[in-house]
Amino acid sequence: MIRDPLPQQHCADALMRDPGCYRSDVKPVWCPGCGDYSVLSALVNALSALQLPPEEVALISGIGCSSRIPTYLSVYGFHGVHGRALPLATGLKLARPDLTVLVAGGDGDGFSIGGNHFLHACRRNVDMTYIIMDNEVYGMTKGQASPTTAPDWRGSELTPAGTGLTPFQPLILALATGANFVARCFSGDPANLADILVEAIRHPGFSVVQILSPCPTFRPEQRQWKNQVRAIPESAATDFRSAARFLMEDDGLSVGRILYRGGRKPFMLSQSRHSDIGDLEVEFAL
Question: What is the pTM of this model?
Answer without folding.
Answer: 0.89
